[in-house]
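Dear colleagues,

For the upcoming journal club I promised to circulate an example of a predicted protein-ligand complex. I picked one with NDP because it came up in last month's discussion. The inputs are reproduced below in full, followed by the predicted structure.
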Amino acid sequence: MSSSAAEFMEGIIAKNPAEKEFHQAVDEVVESLWPVLEKRPEYRKAKILERICEPERVILFRVPWVDDAGEIQVNRGFRIEMNSAIGPYKGGLRFHPSVNLGILKFLAFEQVFKNSLTTLPMGGGKGGSDFDPKGKSDTEVMHFCQSFMNELFRHIGANTDVPAGDIGVGGREIGFLFGQYKRLRNEFVGVLTGKGLNWGGSLIRPEATGYGATYFAAEMLATRNETMEGKTCLVSGSGNVAQFACEKIIDLGGKPVTVSDSSGYIYDEAGIDRDKLAYVMELKNVRRGRIKEYGEKFSSAVYTPADPKLDYNPLWNHKADCAFPSATQNEINEKDAQNLIKNGVYVVSEGANMPTTPEGVKLFLDKRILYGPGKAANAGGVATSGLEMSQNSLRLSWTREEVDQRLQGIMKSIHKACYETAKEFGTPGNYVNGANVAGFLKIADAMLDQGAV
Ligand code: NDP
């Protein structure tokens, strides 16, 4: 058995070479958990940490499909079934050319802790493909999704593994995936979440991750007797999470001033109001255009193209109070974190998964800003997926107000659990430790109860 956290990490790296995002995610959790493990020898004896880092099952498969030109394309499909100690595997599917085993294992690992924090009975999983939906026709996306499901269907099920969306997988893709599952299985069940409203979807599911990250920021601010009112907010991304983070920031009286895509970002000093946000939603969800067009449409905005030669992202270098990274992993490096702090940002609520590098996280913690890590701050999405599963089982639909109230209640309890656990374990205000330890304890105890499985 490893005698130190460093030795444990050496083992993880040796066993999972070339999976750097997975190493990063495990390292952060091990740092939080090691002092807990030293006090709880029963966890060490049962090798809980060793088992939690090893997926229960990894499925890797070929996804052949025919494009509009009649040519055969071949992609790779994955599903990581990470941990089912407290419920069926649950977690999104990501379609993006960067997808590989290490990225999906990091996401699945984070998902286990996140799902535990939601207070709902869900295990953790993640999946996806290196398929790039950008620039593909609807027919090509459908052909791909059908081929992907032709293999995935035998591994998932309403009581086994319930995937959802993530980067590149929204309502359109979930529709095609669900249609093919239903055809293959000949059963209409809640096997996916993020479904359309008239075929089993839940109100507020599309909004939930962005709304949740904003509710989490409001909870953090409340610990200092402050609110979102009047706060200037930097938001990255312009997809599902970013759009609804902007909407809730506006609802709570704040002012989002940036959104981005992988080609660049816009800075709108006057603020992205409801009309401009409606334009972003139409641009991204209907026309599937680029954020550059926002800069052409609104004279108050400046568009800056992405420059891969820069060692920082200028989006994070504007005066503001709050930041909501909502695009992808490692989008805030140490220099970005320094720029954020220099510009007055003292609230960071992560809509994306692991958007801050370890050096950036360290700086946020050292400076004692209100820093909500993704596995807590963006848990509203999966929590509402859990509510969609409940509604499917009950065969009824809750109102918008009812789901939103439950979401707010869940975000409050996640915040409370992180806040109080951080205090209890001697690191008050450190939501990273709070989230890791609170998420872990519930799973670890379930694993102890269930024996060596
Ligand atoms: P979308 O596909 O809807 O949007 C992603 C956005 O981020 C797009 O604007 C995209 O730009 C940008 N982006 C993606 N990859 C990169 C990259 N490598 N560099 C720069 N920009 C990039 O995804 P979501 O909004 O659903 O997801 C965003 C983040 O939130 C992810 O980290 C995801 O894991 C996390 N998350 C999502 C949840 C959900 O419910 N959807 C739940 C919890 C977390 P472009 O179009 O140019 O690629």
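Two points we might discuss: The longest strand covers residues 72-83. The domain at 5-188 is CATH 3.40.50.10860 (Rossmann fold).

See you all on Thursday,
B. R.
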